[in-house]
């Protein structure tokens, strides 16, 4: 059973440590779409030959990440959806090393009778030895079956202003039929993403790609598109609006801004937006 509001907000941080290798950095890059085009020099920087020259910034989302069931929130796991994800990159990730994370509940909100709750979490990722602060990860989960006694309603958020011009960049990124199995090697072994019968029980025609894999793909290829002339991605955030099925083509649209770009991801074959209200900030942007 889910904890009450005061108990959730009063929880201490969940601490995790992880050693990761250059091979792990390569597996993460493969799992978010690098390597599908062998002529892509940018992707090869993240693949090697081992060790790769660089780790993708969004790999921070999977390092020392606690599983939701291990956080002892008491939520009904079958009713949990990934609502949104954000990342602020403070320093480049090494291609191998040891990291330590602290994850805290930062907010709990009631969605209304019979609609469950929203839980916001923040995870800080640091080097286990030097304490270098690599990233702040901001995550929202929607718990459809869990009401929280005493939780306030969510604050009203102004809708994003509609973009009234054609995107500056639009391009397709294919996903591999094996994308979910590859991403599972980074830590998330939820059978929903790999076993057809489990996906069917959850109401999906086939296993779905991890939300964090879709996010990682958006982060990787947005950085590739926006940083060809220098700079590096320092922030990316957005909302998950529909699942992706492994093997589908994801179309990214980018609208340039002074600090970076706005981002939207769609699956044209189904006419579905899968990642919306995206924002990318580029460090060193002109």
Brief digest:
This protein is α+β, with helices and mostly antiparallel strands and 286 residues long. Helix content is 16%, strand content 34%.
Strand and helix map with partners:
Layout: H1 5-9, E1 14-20, H2 22-31, H3 41-44, E2 80-89, E3 97-110, E4 117-127, E5 133-143, E6 169-174, H4 179-184, H5 196-201, H6 211-226, E7 232-240, E8 249-257, E9 260-267, E10 272-283
Antiparallel strand pairs: 1-3, 2-5, 2-7, 3-4, 4-5, 6-8, 7-10, 8-9, 9-10
The gross shape turns out to be globular
Query: How many distinct beta strands?
Result: 10
Q: Give, in spatial order, the strands making up the sheet with the most strands.
A: 1-3-4-5-2-7-10-9-8-6
Show unreliable segments. Answer: none
Helix content: 10-25%
What structural class do you assign from the helix and strand content? alpha+beta
> Could you describe the largest sheet, including whether it forms a barrel?
10 strands, antiparallel
Mean pLDDT: 92
> How many DSSP H or I helices?
6
Beta-strand residue percentage: 25-35%
CATH class of the largest domain: Alpha Beta
Output the radius of gyration.
19 Å
Domain module tally: 2
What is the fold named in CATH at topology level of the largest domain?
Thiol Ester Dehydrase, Chain A
> How many angstroms does the end-to-end distance come to?
50 Å
CATH architecture annotation name of the largest domain: Roll
- Helix-strand pattern: HEHHEEEEEHHHEEEE
Per CATH, the superfamily of the largest domain is Hotdog Thioesterase
């Amino acid at each position: 059973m889910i904890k009450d509001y005061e108990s959730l907000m009063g929880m201490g941080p969940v601490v995790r440590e992880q050693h990761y290798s250059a091979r792990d950095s390569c597996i993460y890059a493969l799992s978010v779409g690098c390597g599908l085009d062998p002529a892509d020099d940018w992707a090869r920087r993240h693949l090697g030959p081992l060790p790769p020259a660089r780790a993708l910034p969004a790999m921070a989302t999977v390092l020392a990440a606690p599983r939701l069931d291990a956080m002892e929130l008491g939520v009904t796991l079958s009713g949990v959806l990934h609502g949104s994800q954000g990342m602020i990159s403070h320093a480049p990730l090494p291609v191998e090393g040891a990291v330590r994370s602290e994850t805290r509940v930062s907010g709990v909100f009631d969605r209304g009778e019979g609609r469950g709750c929203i839980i916001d979490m923040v995870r800080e990722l640091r080097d286990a030895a030097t304490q270098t602060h690599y990233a702040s990860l901001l995550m929202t989960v929607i718990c459809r079956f869990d009401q929280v006694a005493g939780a306030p309603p969510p604050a009203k958020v102004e809708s994003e202003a509609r973009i009234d011009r054609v995107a500056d960049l639009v391009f397709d990124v294919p996903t591999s039929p094996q994308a979910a199995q590859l991403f599972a090697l980074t830590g998330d072994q939820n059978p929903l993403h790999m076993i057809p019968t489990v996906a069917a029980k959850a109401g999906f025609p086939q296993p779905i790609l991890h939300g964090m894999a879709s996010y990682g793909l958006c982060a990787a290829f947005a950085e590739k598109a926006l940083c060809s002339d220098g700079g590096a991605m320092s922030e990316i955030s957005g909302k998950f609006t529909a699942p992706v099925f492994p093997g589908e083509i994801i179309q990214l649209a980018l609208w340039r801004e002074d600090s970076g770009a706005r981002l939207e991801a769609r699956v044209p074959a189904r006419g579905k937006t899968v990642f919306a209200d995206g924002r990318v900030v580029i460090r060193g942007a002109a």
